[in-house]
Design brief:
Elements (H helix, E strand, L loop, with lengths): L21 H32 L1 H11 L2 H28 L6 H25 L1
Helix pairs in contact: 1-2, 1-3, 3-4
Length: 127
């Protein structure tokens, strides 16, 4: 039978052992932005349902969405939408077998991050 007394060694590698890499962090950020966009979509659905229900319900929903907090949520949802889109394009490129080497993958990760910020600012200024 195996020795069950293993001392203070970790049973598996933990996040404190490895240095975070841009590709792993961007993968996590893609999942976070996907879930965050769901929250924004639910707010928009609430706004549409309130518009179809009554003027009082619409005033409540519209007041929330146009408040400073609602504007902040929508701005960061826009940032998440752009990031999620650019990360998806990066994955489509990877699926075709291009850009899989580490330097190119790092550049594409930074391009998705910087591109999402720039596109968010441009979109926010236009709207």
């Amino acid at each position: 039978m195996a020795d069950v007394n293993r001392g203070n060694r970790p049973l598996s590698p933990h996040l404190t052992i490895y240095r975070p890499q841009l590709t792993s962090m961007s993968s996590i950020l893609t999942r976070i932005t996907g879930n965050a966009m769901l929250v924004a979509a639910l707010l928009i659905v609430w706004w549409f349902l309130a518009a179809a229900t009554s003027p009082e319900a619409f005033a409540t929903a519209n007041g929330f969405i146009t408040s400073w907090f609602g504007d902040l949520v929508m701005f960061f949802s826009l940032l998440g939408l752009w990031y999620h889109t650019l990360a998806g394009i990066r994955h489509l490129i990877w699926d075709n077998g291009y850009g899989l080497d580490i330097p190119t993958a790092e550049k594409m990760g930074w391009a998705a991050l910087v591109g999402s910020v720039v596109l968010t600012i441009i979109t926010a200024l236009i709207i």
